[in-house]
From TrEMBL:
A GO molecular-function annotation: DNA-binding transcription factor activity
InterPro entries: bZIP, bZIP_plant_GBF1, bZIP_sf
GO biological process: positive regulation of DNA-templated transcription
Location in the cell: Nucleus
Domain of life assignment: Eukaryota
Signal peptide: none
Protein known as: Uncharacterized protein
Main subcellular location of this protein, as a coarse class: nucleus
An example Gene Ontology CC term for this record: nucleus
Organism the protein comes from: Daucus carota subsp. sativus (Carrot)
Keywords noted in UniProt: DNA-binding, Nucleus, Transcription, Transcription regulation
UniProt-listed SUPFAM superfamilies: Leucine zipper domain (SSF57959)
Amino acid sequence: MDHAKRPSSGSEEDDRYMMITEDKKRKRMISNRESARRSRMKRQQHMQDLNNQIMFYKNRRTEINQSISNFTEQFTAIENQNRIMRAQKEELRKRLEAAELVTSYLDAAKGYPVNTAEEPWYYNLWQPSQSMPIMTSAEFFQF
């Protein structure tokens, strides 16, 4: 037998076992370091994404607050215009009422002469007209 088996000593096996174990430990250590590095990178990226979201939402909040401020100003301006227009409407309603009253007086006064020389027509509204006689009853002068 040319190839005689050499009896392996315990120390050779121990050395080989130690080398294999050390190699596995080294590979595991390298793998763990890479995993930790990836984890740190992933966490860093996640933090960056969260910070970007924070900035986005802060900017969005500022825009929304500005829009609310603009709408509030517009609402106040429109509310003021509305108040003015209501007051104008009331004034116009009163003027229309007065004009209708004058028109009704004019309609009632048709046939009465209107003095247009110097005085306005409404100064003579309560003056008796010469075209209509004043009638009194006999009991009017009894004491």
